[in-house]
């Protein structure tokens, strides 16, 4: 078997000077790109992208969320996957979700038995990444938290979520940097 590289919600809204900017996203993107460009990509691991789009018929608290952020969610540019992803989107699938967890996507919920590990990358550490990590743990997957390929709203939030990921190691998770992952598991 091989790993699955999950690139979560790398959308325009999270880049610098945008409403939900994650300061470390440019650096995280460079590491995600290294993974996507690695000779191991497609051989040692497959790739899936997710994109968050506000729910059309929100349930419960998502209704309030939609009201509070309606201007951001209604802007097609902000919701769009970032331009640098374009060449990779021709090769790998994109799944749309309307909750934090990527496990809300039926096609991804069945993945744990098909891959050795789920490699988490993308944004936002304290929302979609955390929720996806916990959901995949509940689904029985082994999660690899690629700490330098994940961005949060602040370095403090990134450190907190990395600590949570590390607390589940080694049974459910492992926390690695991109270099360490590529060196330990595959040739770069």
Outline of the structure:
The protein is an alpha/beta fold and 188 residues long. Helices cover 38% and strands 20% of the residues. The chain is built from nine helices and six strands.
Helix content: 25-40%
H/I helix tally: 9
Order of helices and strands: EHEHHHHEHEHEHEH
Radius of gyration: 16 Å
> What's the level 1 CATH class?
Alpha Beta
Output the CATH topology: Rossmann fold
Distance between the termini: 19 Å
| Average pLDDT rating | 94
Order of strands in the sheet with the most strands?
3-2-1-4-5-6
Task: Give the CATH architecture.
Answer: 3-Layer(aba) Sandwich
Tell me the domain tally.
Answer: 1
Class based on secondary structure composition and strand pairing: alpha/beta
Stretches with pLDDT under 50, minimum 5 residues? none
Per DSSP E runs of 2 or more residues, the count of β-strands stands at: 6
Q: Main sheet?
A: 6 strands, parallel
Share of residues in strands:
15-25%
CATH superfamily: Isochorismatase-like
Shape: globular
Summarize the structure in words:
By secondary structure, this protein is an alpha/beta fold. The chain has a single domain, classed as 3-Layer(aba) Sandwich (Rossmann fold), CATH 3.40.50.850. The protein is built from nine helices and six strands, in the order βαβααααβαβαβαβα. It has helices at 25-37, 61-68, 70-73, 76-79, 86-89, 106-109, 125-138, 155-167, 178-185; strands at 3-8, 45-52, 94-97, 118-123, 143-151, 173-176. A six-stranded parallel β-sheet has the order 3-2-1-4-5-6. Helix 7 runs parallel beside helix 8. The radius of gyration is 16 Å and the shape is globular. It starts with a strand and ends with a helix.
């Amino acid at each position: 078997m091989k790993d699955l590289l999950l690139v979560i919600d790398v959308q325009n809204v999270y880049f610098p000077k945008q409403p939900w900017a994650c300061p470390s996203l440019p650096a995280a993107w460079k590491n995600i790109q290294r993974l996507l460009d690695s000779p191991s990509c497609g051989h040692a691991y497959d790739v899936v992208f997710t994109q968050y789009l506000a729910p059309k018929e929100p349930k419960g608290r998502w209704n309030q969320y939609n009201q509070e952020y309606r201007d951001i969610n209604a802007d097609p540019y902000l919701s769009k996957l970032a331009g640098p992803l374009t060449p990779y989107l021709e090769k790998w699938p994109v799944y749309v979700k309307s909750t934090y967890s990527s496990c809300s996507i039926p096609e991804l919920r069945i993945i744990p038995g098909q891959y050795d590990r789920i490699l988490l990358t993308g944004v936002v550490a304290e929302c979609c990444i955390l929720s996806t990590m916990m959901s995949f743990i509940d689904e029985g997957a082994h999660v690899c938290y690629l700490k330098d390929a994940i961005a949060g709203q602040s370095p403090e939030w990134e450190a907190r979520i990395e600590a949570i990921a590390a607390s589940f190691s080694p049974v459910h998770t492992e926390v690695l940097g991109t270099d360490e992952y590529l060196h330990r598991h595959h040739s770069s």
